Predict the structure.
Amino acid sequence: MNREQQDQFDGGRRLPLVEDFYTIQGEGFHTGKAAYFIRLGGCDVGCRWCDAKFTWNPRIYPPRSVDEIVERACGYKAQAIVVTGGEPLLYPLDYLTGRLHERGLEIFLETSGSHPFSGTFDWVCLSPKRRQPPLEEAFGRAHELKVIVESEADFEWAERNAACTRSGCLLYLQPEWSVYERVTPAIVEYVKEHPQWNISVQTHKFMHIP
């Protein structure tokens, strides 16, 4: 991050907020849990099947006060906060996570792991992308590895990343939504043969919630 960007974000006291909202976590280990989502703008990975392409350009999301974001989050009953994007690790997150922890909230991060870590998190979901693979430090921080499966070729990519994770990291395969019906049978058979893996489904899309 250059000096101009550092000034713009005031050491993380302002961040490019796309949206923040209260919903149910739809994916991975915490599926079904009430959570307040903080979605930040900006991503330089650029997956063609991304379902949040509207977040990619951070210039259309002016920096917003983190203190105001935290106050809104604390107005809901959820005790869990999900920081997502875009790619949230493009920004300094220490101030955000510090303020949220001061209020007694759990913080979950969803990241591709392609940028250095900042902030302190209670749970890290690492979703590695071929276009910009995770940094080595991301594997040591991940509590959960969630690999998006678009074709059977992605199983080898999933195993390559799983081999880098620490002991106890939970492993998930998640069908890419646009090809859900086509790839799900192959994922089911793969998990039956490799039971160290679990299946993650985007349940929020079935429930028609954010």
About this structure: The mean pLDDT is 95. The longest strand covers residues 14-24. Residues 26 and 204 are 5 Å apart (CA to CA). The helical segments are 3-9, 66-73, 94-102, 136-141, 154-162, 180-193, 203-207.
